[in-house]
Amino acid sequence: MDVPFLPTLNALLNTTAILLLAWGRWLARRHRILAHQRTMIAAFVVSSAFLACYLLHKWQEGFHHVTLEVTGVLKAAYLLLLASHVLLAMTVPFFAIALITLGLRGRIAKHRRLAVIGWPVWMYVSVTGVLIYLILYVLPRA
Fold first, then answer.
1. Domain ranges in the chain?
2. Whole-model pTM?
3. So what's the pLDDT on residue 1?
4. DSSP states of the chain as a string?
């Protein structure tokens, strides 16, 4: 099964997650709790869809990775970005599930304490995911 549009779909899912995460935080700061809950659950669903599509793409490609054809400082900067993205991405499902669980169970103080760490990590992973897509799939064609 060849699905060449998956990298672009993944970038769109990450972009959607960025917008939902920002909107969800805005709602929480305005104490619009039900809208915040729905928005953050939507962000979790979108991020989960991203993960499923990402894994499908990797499987489809035989777990081959795209190499950035640069050297020197640019290569080092890209590898640092990629490493931070990958390492933090592994934590996002745990943060997201814990935050949703705490929030829905009404454990708001713990939810807020964890969100101080979890929300920026989730946002960073989503933003860097889009940046990595642009670096690997868009800029080389420009």
1. 6-141
2. 0.91
3. 57
4. ---TTHHHHHHHHHHHHHHHHHHHHHHHHTT-HHHHHHHHHHHHHHHHHHHHHHHHHHHHTTT--PPP---HHHHHHHHHHHHHHHHHHTTHHHHHHHHHHHHHTT-HHHHHHHHHHHHHHHHHHHHHHHHHHIIIIIGGG-
